[in-house]
Amino acid sequence: MKSVTSIVERIIEENPLMEYSMKTGIASHVKIAKYIHNDVEKAKGQEVNLSAIVMALQRFSFSKKEQKIKDFSIRNITTRSNLSEISIAKTPKIRDIISAVYNIIDSDRGEIVNFVHGNSETTIIFESQKMDKIKEKLKGEKILAEIVGLSEVSVLFSKNMFEEPGFLAHILKELAWREINVVEVISTYNELCIIVRDEEQIDAYKAIKNLFSPLTASKAKHQSKK
């Protein structure tokens, strides 16, 4: 039979806003315990004392504080705005499309393009000013989605961070807590690029910067590239 502690942990972890309320102190353990009391009893299949739920919440909070001690560190944070993305259906011409798109990107001027490949579609993320030229290269292809007004928050981290369990979740959960919608996630070995709406760029940047230690955050540089 499941313990009260495991049931409470599952309920909280499945509700990012509730976990955020605990983290920030917006809601007390007692209030949260009262709120989830019925759910805990249903999962347990019997009556559960409210104090047992409060104690489980306290243990959960303590374990989270211990987890934060883990030395997650980042080297730099940068931002880039005025981006767009187009998603196209899988096509046998994808290699030609990639080559054609790269030919109109001036990397010497700092222009960027990213391709995200799925099993049935490909998403292209690029500078908005290249929209017309890129759509020209996609003539005849099935466009599944087109999104403008995007920004990128890029996190450069230590070489061993991808080997640390929970590193990506550490960042993405913080954005979820703050109700920041992540449009795309692009990662390489030492860099994580998070694509958000333009209006959420500043909030996403601040959330990630504040997530790490003051010493690490003080080294982060905010470089807006338009």
Features:
single chain; 226 residues; alpha+beta; VC0802-like; 2 domains; 7-stranded mixed beta sheet; 9 helices; 25% strand; elongated; disordered C terminus
CATH architecture of the largest domain: 2-Layer Sandwich
E-strand count:
7
Radius of gyration: 22 Å
Helix-strand string: HHHHEHEEHEHEEHHE
What name is given to the CATH topology of the largest domain? VC0802-like
Tell me roughly what share of residues is in helical segments: 40-55%
Written description of the protein model:
- The protein has 226 residues and is an alpha+beta fold.
- Helices cover 44% and strands 25% of the residues.
- It has 2 domains: 4-66; 74-225, VC0802-like, CATH 3.30.2130.
- The chain has 9 helices and 7 strands.
- Strands 1, 2, 3, 4, 5, 6 and 7 form a 7-stranded mixed beta sheet that branches.
- 20% of the residues are buried.
